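Entry for the shared binder. Reason: the reviewer on the internal report wants the predicted structure included alongside the sequence.
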Amino acid sequence: MATSKEISPDEYLASLTAERREVVSAVRTVILEHLPEGYVETVNWGMLSFEIPLSRFAATRNKQPLSYMALAANKTGYSLHMMNCDAAPHLLDDVKAWHDKERKRFDMGKGCYRFRRLEDIPLHLIGAIVASTSVETMIATAQQAWKLD
């Protein structure tokens, strides 16, 4: 997992080399343009984090804000953590199809999409994934998973 001591998104970006900052900034811009209302951007878990603040939903299991997306520059590339993947599997199918069509390597674990260069990621599809899940839907999904009311 990425680690960072920075406390704000701007400080996180400033800590990156120019090349890495360019890639992270481009993906961040897409996220911010498509981020549904109610999510906030922070630095958490050592990466840019887009989450539901505790003031909106405090009943999390770890007493941390409910994470929606996270973006990091890692040692060998970049990672985009998408906690809403189960809510929009057809959008992930579109991402896989894009990789097949472009003959690019698809590298994804459970909700963690890894890429090495900006041209290796379909930004238009990432925007659709970001826009796909409202705060209310994300909270309801968490409550159902944790059997909360």
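Summary line for the report: The longest helix spans residues 18-34.
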